[in-house]
Design brief:
This protein is mainly alpha-helical. The longest helix is centred in the middle third of the chain and has 29 residues.
Length: 97
């Protein structure tokens, strides 16, 4: 019969020496990700260098469609009404609690 110490001392993870490829594969993946990051940074820097120092100011649209010219704000000319209920006072809160 197995004692508790023997059960806890058993190697239930298999042969740990067969995973010898994990280290080189991890190094390879790190190098690939680092290379991709460097290439992306270089690409973004070259794109940013091509941008002008200042952009021309944005003006209003050159032409307005008929539908755009007829749009009217539905709330224009009406007064907003507060539909929220008033907050309870301290006395009302004590009576309910």
């Amino acid at each position: 019969m197995l004692t508790a110490a023997q059960v806890l001392a058993q190697n239930n993870f298999g042969d740990t020496r067969t995973g010898g490829l994990a280290g080189p594969m991890g190094l390879f993946l790190i190098l690939v990700l680092a290379t991709a990051t460097v290439l992306l940074i270089r690409n973004m820097n070259s794109r940013l260098r091509r941008l002008p120092d200042r952009f021309p100011p944005q003006g209003p649209p050159a032409t307005l469609d008929r539908a755009d010219a007829e749009v009217v704000d539905p709330t224009e000319g009406t007064q907003a009404q507060d539909s929220s209920t008033p907050a309870p006072t301290g006395r009302q809160q004590r009576r309910n609690g």
